[in-house]
Amino acid sequence: EIVLTQSPGAPSLSPGERATLSCRASQSVRSDYLAWYQQKPGQAPRLLIFGASTRATGIPDRFSGSGSGTDFTLTISRLEPEDFAVYYCHQYATSPWTFGQGTKVEIK
Amino acid sequence: EVQLVQSGAELKEPGESLKISCKASGYSFASHWIGWVRQMPGKGLEWMGNIYPGDSDTRYGPSFEGQVTISVDKSISTAYLQWSSLQASDTAMYYCARPRSYLDNNNFPQPYYFDSWGQGTLVTVSS
Fold first, then answer.
1. How far is residue A67's CA from residue B53's CA, in Å, rounded to a whole number?
2. What is the DSSP letter of A97?
């Protein structure tokens, strides 16, 4: 099973700042089959990024994904108030599919 | 537009059985995998399994194999998640979600990332 470890745990940032979220895999994620989701309280997760770096339909370009192999990053270039949420990485390359434990981006 | 509409919240006692549903619309149900994800209170997301409605090929996560049953009814474009005997530890929000598909070397659809999610079904198990 591929274990995904996300960091930092719970960054406190201000609107307008840059957020850099990390996802490290315990083994290489084949074909960069890694996605990022955003989840707000009381809502279902929403797909942001798939294939490590491709934005999903309708996702603002302030969200970007990068990385390959075992190290992946989600960057939010300038935080908007609606971006404060929990973010999960997810690998769908190898069964069982796994998620990271989540990173909560909090308002400072 | 892809829509996944889940059944309503459930309050059950330990030992009871339960079947929750996820009705799909806006796409060809039989041609796309569909999956279930658990979120325990205050916790992260856990993949439970995926099913291909075309032939009911089902893949379970190791923590859920033998604990739940995933099934579909193609005639009404609905997926199900079922327990035969609930435990308090089954208390959670359960989401259905549709993976995008890609064709493998044998021209068979394989599941990809989840691109559409249901609204969630809260299951509470308490005596």
1. 34
2. P
How many CA atoms lie within 13 Å of A9's alpha carbon, on the beta-carbon side?
A: 0
Q: What is the mean pLDDT of residues B32-54?
A: 97
What lies within 8 Å, CB to CB, of A41 at 6+ separation is none
Instruction: Tell me the average pLDDT across B58-77.
Output: 97
Chain B nearest C-alpha distance from A51 (Å): 9
CA dist B109 and A31 (Å) reads: 17
**Residue A91: exposed, middle, or buried by beta-carbon count in 10 A (0-12, 13-18, 19+)?**
buried
pLDDT in tens, B88-119: 999 999 999 999 988 889 998 899 999 999 99
Residues of B with CB under 8 A from a CB of A: 37, 44-47, 50, 59, 61-62, 95, 97, 99-100, 111-115, 117-120
Q: Considering only CA atoms, which of A39, A34, A13, A12 is closest in space to residue A24?
A: A34
Of B42, B115, B96, nearest to A86 (Cα)? B42
Q: Tokens 């990485």 appear where? A: A89
Tell me whether residues B45 and A92 touch, CB distance under 8 A: no
DSSP symbol at B26? S
DSSP chain B: --EEEEPPPEEE-TT--EEEEEEEESS-GGGS-EEEEEE-TT--EEEEEEEETTTTEEEE-TTTTTT-EEEEEGGGTEEEEEESS--GGG-EEEEEEEEEEEE-TTS-EEEEEEEEE---EEEEE--
